[in-house]
Amino acid sequence: MEQTTKKSKTYLIYWFIIVLLAGYLAYTIYDKIQRQKRCQQTIVQLENTAAEKDSLQLELEQIYIQYDQLKTNNDTLNVRLTKEKQKVAKLLQELRRVKATDRQKIEQLKQEVSLLRNIMKSYVRQIDSLYQKNQVLMAENKKIKEQYSVTLVEKQNLEQITDSLKQKVALAQELEARDVTFRALNRRDRKTRRIKRTKKFEVCFTILANKVATPGIKKVYLRIAKPNGDILINSQSSTFTYQGKEIFYSSVKEIDYEGKDTPVCIYYVNDTKLPPGTYTAFVFIDGKQILSQQIKLK
Question: What is the distance between the alpha carbons of residues 176 and 269, in angstroms, rounded to a whole number?
């Protein structure tokens, strides 16, 4: 009887231990499954956050390109567009520095990108509105011109005066130059590329015909800038007035301009040691710069 009782107790202990082990094993398996799920969720969240970051970066780059493509003749609006473009560039740099794990920061940047997108849309609407208004003004201007032309046809006496004024307006342009050459010459007046051999600078060009420009004697001023920007001069008194200021000139020449194509050559004789580098020639007539040209001397 006692042996039977002992065996029963032993079996009960074994079963108890088995149940405990089975419970522990079940808990271990369940815990591992839960940790795997949490890990998988974390990976998915990180992937989603990284994808959102990439999407935000792409959107910012597109906004930046769109700002770069927005064009308008309104100076005030252009200043605002430039500022907004700078904001986009700054935000883009900030986004690139943010880690993909920083969910909070990415959400913050996401809101800022949304705001910038709305601002850009607002500017697009403004520019489109300005364009539409400009089209209306152009149409009205065209209509006025057409009505004006009809009036001119009806009034023969005013037609010649009006045509003359229109021609002067069309031709009222500053003097321009073409066929520009800028050369360094040696002592034999031959072209050279070496600064040590340079004894003279020559600038030749043709002043274009201009029927509206006032004919007569005109002064042509030549300014030659050294590589450091200093102007080559012969005297401290070699100055002329440009945009309300007295500036140095290297050489001056008088020409008789008759409103036709006029070839001109002007020279500066060098008697000092000059450094190698890029030299720039500027030519001025009637208080306006009409050309600039560069040469590089070794």
Answer: 25
Tell me how far CA of residue 50 lies from CA of 54, 57, 199, in angstroms: 6, 11, 67
Token output for 217:
């004697």
Residue with tokens 């070699």, as numbered in its chain: 238
Distance separating alpha carbons of residues 98 and 54, to the nearest angstrom: 11
Among the listed residues 174, 196, 177, 176, the one whose alpha carbon sits nearest the alpha carbon of residue 186:
196
Residue 219 forms beta bridges with which residues? Answer: 254
For residues 118, 120, 122 and 126, what is the CA-based torsion angle, rounded to 10 degrees? -170
pLDDT tens column, 118-158:
776 666 677 667 667 777 777 777 777 777 666 666 666 65
- And the tokens for 141? 């201007």
Phi/psi of residue 155, nearest 5 degrees: -115, 90
Closest to 264 in 3D by CA, of 212, 210, 216, 221: 221
Residue 239, token pair as written in the block: 């100055």
